[in-house]
Amino acid sequence: MGNETALRSGIATLLADRDFARIWGAGALFSVVRWLETLAVGIFVIDLTGSPTTVAVVGAMRMLPMLLLGALAGSLADRTSRRTMLIAVAALSGLFSLLLGLLAWLDAVAVWQVAVGSFVTGILWAIDLPVRRTILADIAGPTRMSAAMGLESAVSNVTRLVGVGLGGLLVGTVGVEGAYLLGAAMYAVAIVLTAGSRHKEMPSSSLRCNIMADTVGGIRSIGADRFLAAVLIATIIFNFFGFAYTAMVPVVGRELLQADAFAIGLLSSTEAAASLFVSLIYATLSTRRWLGPAYLFSILILMGGILVFALSSNYWLSIGVMVVTGAATGCFSVTQSMLVLLASPPALQARAMGVLAICIGLCPLGMLHLGWLAEWLGTSAAIIISAIEGAVAVVAVMVLCPRLLKPDLPNQEEGRGASPSGAPVSRFEASSKKAAPRDEGG
To answer: Between 298 and 2, whose confidence is greater?
Structure first.
């Protein structure tokens, strides 16, 4: 009971913190635009081309920067102003959204232009994960980390709910130009919020250091830890075999369920609502125990839900399945960031989040995998095969790293994780002291 009271108190103090609220709010706007454009673009492309592969390729373009830039963004976050990075990329994304909105309004937008716009938006996503979440972790500190990540996951799901609902509504009433123009306005507000933050950052690396060597060294340090490596492999499984199916939701809605744009938006909104509910539970009641089991079993539940979704031809059954997959996704999203941040020493947290971004960035390959299978075997069969592959892969992780199924993190202290190398706590404390100037800035 005392832990729950402390966690609720942590949530209250975080929301009252001006800097946390601004960065958190900017992230909420980024996320709304992300889901708004994802659904709107998916419906626009399937209606224009009728090709599941094209839908998958455009969806993959949005995720590709995570794979290409994730680790590099993590290293840059250790040596430059994270706030400036977010503002610059948000401005670029907003400019592209405005341009595409005007082209769509003039009925002059092409699929290749939409794909380029998706790639630029994906750059913001690649920067946002390691950079903004590390800022939030800095402001929150170790004792409020669980509350911060619970709030972060909760707002991600709120914005997904709002974004996909708006996307379906705007495409069905105004057209894809409405989604792009609204997105450009939201980017502008997010830039103002981020620029107004007073959080002081203390880079832990010098710009004169070899950034590629620093990036590779960080990846090696993280990969040397069996526990953290298993967490990241599970992330790859979730995104490649599981989350990639979101690119096919407009295709399933049109081809299998015969749904209109608003009904497709409702499908995705239902999943987001379930994710939100689970995230809020974690934000208010979660402890740091059983994170690993919750993480792995949420992936298994997601794969089972996707399997049923692919077999369903009834819209309301599909809505029910979305509740299950949404709950699994909400559990996964909270436990994922917490596991990575708590199991990494402070000096490696930004780079660990960068490696996490790479793992998430493998989702485009999963989307292409689904798109190609859908062209050869049909959309339903493609999703079924992918779900079975994912379930088998996560069971293999459970067998090869049973440590993830235990209730506590390795060498866990109150409010801290262990070093990636599995070193004694005293060595981890030394790393914490080296990173102390960054915490003081918050």
So the answer is: 298
Nearest to 371 by CA among 51, 47, 46: 51
Q: Where are the alpha helices (DSSP H) in 288-314?
A: 291-311
Q: Is the pLDDT of residue 1 over 50?
A: no
Three-state DSSP class for 320? Answer: helix
**Of the listed ranges 79-93, 232-246, 385-399, the one predicted with least confidence:** 79-93
Q: Output DSSP code: residue 243.
A: G
Output b/e per residue, 301-327; b: 16+ Cβ within 10 A.
Answer: bbbbbbbbbbebeeeeebbebbbbbbb
Residue type, 127: I
Cβ neighbours around 342 below 10 Å, total: 22
Contact partners, residue 229, CB within 8 Å, separation at least 6: 222, 223
Other CB atoms within 10 Å distance of the CB of residue 288: 19
Q: Where are the alpha helices (DSSP H) in 207-260?
A: 211-223, 226-237, 249-255
CB 269 within 8 A of CB 167: no
Residue with tokens 């209606």: 47
Q: Kindly report, residue by residue over 11-48, the tens digit of the pLDDT.
A: 778 878 888 888 888 888 988 888 888 888 888 888 88
> Which sign does the torsion angle of CA 129, 135, 136, 137 carry?
positive
**Section 213-226 average pLDDT:** 64
The answer to whether 421 and 224 are in contact (CB under 8 A) is: yes
Any idea what DSSP says for residue 160?
A: H
Collapsing DSSP to helix, strand or coil, 413 comes out as: strand
**pTM (whole model) above 0.85:** no
Residue 133's Cβ-count burial label (10 Å; 0-12, 13-18, 19+) is buried
